[in-house]
Specification:
By secondary structure, the chain is mainly α. The chain has one domain: Leucine-rich Repeat Variant (Alpha Horseshoe). Helices cover 70% and strands 0% of the residues. It has seven helices and no strands. The termini are far apart.
Length: 130
C-alpha cells in the first residue's frame, strides 16, 4: 500500500477471518498478511480466532492460522499461541508440519526464551524426510 493508511481494511480483515467459510477466511488472512505488521493494534483482535483456527479439523484452515503467525505475529500473540504451534509441529500432515516450522521460527525470533520448549519438536522435524 506504499505507506497509505490501511485501518479501514484491517477491521474488515478481522471480520473475514471470523467467517465460517474457508474462502472468506482465506481472503481475510491474506489481507492480514498484507495490511498488518507487528505494530498494528488491530492484530490482537485476531489472536483468539487464530487459536480457534489452529484447532480446526480442516488442514487448510489450520495452515492459514500458522501462516499468519509466521508472517505478522507479535510477541504477545506468540506467547499465547506457541503451545499450539508446538502441537502442530507433530502433526501427521507434512503440509501442517512445514507451516508450523515457519511459525516456530517467527515465535523463537519474537520470544527467544521459549526455545527450550521447541527442542523435541525441532528434533522430530530434522529427522523428517519431508
Amino acid at each position: 500500500m506504499l505507506g497509505y493508511p490501511t485501518a479501514f481494511g484491517q477491521v474488515e480483515c478481522t471480520k473475514l477471518v471470523a467467517a465460517p467459510s474457508y474462502t472468506e477466511k482465506r481472503i481475510g488472512y491474506l489481507g492480514i498478511n498484507m495490511l498488518m505488521d507487528q505494530t498494528s493494534d488491530v492484530l490482537m483482535l485476531v489472536t483468539n480466532q487464530i487459536k480457534r483456527d489452529l484447532n480446526a479439523r480442516e488442514t487448510y484452515v489450520s495452515a492459514l492460522g500458522l501462516t499468519a503467525i509466521a508472517e505478522c505475529s507479535t510477541e504477545e500473540m506468540c506467547r499465547e499461541l506457541y503451545t499450539e504451534v508446538i502441537r502442530l509441529m507433530r502433526s501427521s500432515s507434512s503440509y501442517i508440519r512445514t507451516r508450523a516450522a515457519l511459525a516456530a521460527i517467527r515465535t523463537i525470533k519474537n520470544i527467544p526464551d521459549v526455545i527450550e520448549d521447541f527442542y523435541e519438536a525441532i528434533e522430530q522435524c530434522l529427522e523428517d524426510k519431508h
